[in-house]
Each structure stands twice: as structure tokens, then as C-alpha cells.
């Protein structure tokens, strides 16, 4: 049977992307690259690209055509990002990226009620906005329980800055949210910790976490949430 090798190569390249999206979907590694708002791209690609590749292969039957050098180069460029991604896995953003991506003067959603445990970015919002803190009744004595990583050692007396990133579209648009924790052990930066404690200080000016327990933990499967 004669084959159109130009279409066949395109089918292989498209299939490679389909397999890559399936891998990201099954392994859960998609969260390293994209946020929850664009997660649908991975599932859509995993479901549709293999079908598109099969359609290309079906159309390649019965036609004899050798691929040109230009076609070979184009298909090579198409699959190159996959190879680079697999060879050099993207690490999660850490302490070095916090200063560049720190969210200052944050526009807190004043009429958004907190549901469940108080999260780190909600503490950061309360530290920046007294109105947000008052609306959600965040202040002295509010219990907190969250996971974050150490982004800075503030002094030698058990005070750390812990941070976490929030991702909208992808890791490139991540914003860092931070909080100060007192009563913590001296831990190196980029150490992931589980923090339990209560809020102390004044919302809008100097709100901190007084820790009752700071425990080292493994990096969560989704570091951007």
C-alpha cells in the first residue's frame, strides 16, 4: 500500500502531543504548568488529538508522497517542546520567585465569604485589607490550618515568612501570597510545612500567625492552590 509520508509524519507529531496530554492528565503533572482555569486544555487535548492523528493516518493511505526537508524540520519543531519538557521537568516556583511575584496592595474580594479552613492567601488579604478581615471575621484568635513553603527567615527567634502561589492561567502568571509565622522552628527556605495556629496582630497593618505546630511535609501534588 502506498503512503503519503508527509501526512503520516504529521499524524505522528499530533499523536505525540496527544500522548503527552494523556500523560499530564493521568500523572497529575499538569498542575505544574497550568492553573485550574485552563485544566480543560489538557483533557480536551488528551481526548481529541489521538482522534485527529488517526484521521491524518486514514487520509495518508493510497497516496505516495515523500516528505520534504522542510516538512521534516517543521514536525521536529512541533515535537521539540515535548522532548524538552520531559528532559528538563519544570520545578515548582519557590522562594527565589516570591519577591518577583509577590502580590502587594492586593485588591481583596470584599464580599467573598470564606468557606472551610482559612487559607494562606486569605490571611494575606486580611493582612492588607481591614475591610476584608472584618467582613470575614478574621482577627486576633482566629484559628488557621494551612500548608505552605518557607520563603524567608525573618530572624533567629522563630519567625518565618511562608508563602504559596496562586495560578490563574499558567505558572507564568502566578502570584505569591505570604504570611509571617511566629513560634516556628528554624527551617531552610523552600521547606514545605503544615502550619497550625491562630492569628495575632491587627488586620490591615500587622497580621501574623502564632503557630502552635509547624511540621515539615512533602510538597503537595498541586503546589499552586
From TrEMBL:
Key word Ligase present? no
Q: Transmembrane helix: present as a keyword of the record?
A: yes
**Which keywords describe this protein according to UniProt?**
Membrane, Transmembrane, Transmembrane helix
- Which spans are transmembrane here? 7-26, 38-60, 72-98
InterPro entries to which the protein is assigned, alphabetical: DUF1980, DUF1980_C, UPF0703_membrane_permease
The record's listing under Pfam families reads: DUF1980_C
Domain DUF1980 residue range list? 140-224
NCBIfam families hit by this protein: TIGR03943 family putative permease subunit (TIGR03943)
Q: What is this protein called?
A: Putative repeat protein (TIGR03943 family)
Amino acid at each position: 500500500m502506498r503512503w503519503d509520508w508527509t501526512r503520516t509524519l504529521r499524524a505522528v507529531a499530533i499523536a505525540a502531543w496527544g500522548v503527552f496530554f494523556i500523560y499530564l492528565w493521568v500523572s497529575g503533572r499538569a498542575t505544574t504548568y497550568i492553573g485550574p482555569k485552563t485544566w480543560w486544555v489538557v483533557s480536551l487535548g488528551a481526548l481529541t488529538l489521538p482522534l485527529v492523528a488517526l484521521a491524518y493516518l486514514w487520509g495518508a493511505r493510497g497516496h505516495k508522497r515523500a516528505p520534504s526537508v522542510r516538512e521534516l524540520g517543521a514536525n521536529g519543531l512541533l515535537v521539540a517542546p515535548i522532548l524538552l519538557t520531559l528532559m528538563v521537568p519544570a520545578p515548582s516556583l519557590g522562594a527565589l520567585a516570591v519577591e518577583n511575584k509577590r502580590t502587594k496592595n492586593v485588591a481583596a474580594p470584599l464580599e467573598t465569604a470564606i468557606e472551610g479552613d482559612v487559607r494562606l492567601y486569605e490571611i494575606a488579604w486580611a493582612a492588607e485589607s481591614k475591610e476584608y478581615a472584618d467582613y470575614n471575621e478574621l482577627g486576633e484568635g482566629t484559628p488557621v490550618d494551612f500548608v505552605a513553603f518557607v520563603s524567608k527567615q525573618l530572624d533567629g527567634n522563630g519567625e518565618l515568612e511562608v508563602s504559596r502561589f496562586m495560578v490563574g492561567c499558567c505558572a507564568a502568571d502566578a502570584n505569591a501570597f505570604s504570611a509571617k509565622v511566629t513560634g516556628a522552628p528554624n527551617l531552610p527556605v523552600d521547606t514545605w510545612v503544615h502550619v497550625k495556629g491562630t492569628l495575632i496582630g491587627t488586620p490591615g497593618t500587622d497580621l501574623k500567625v502564632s503557630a502552635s505546630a509547624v511540621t515539615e511535609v512533602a510538597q503537595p501534588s498541586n503546589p499552586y492552590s
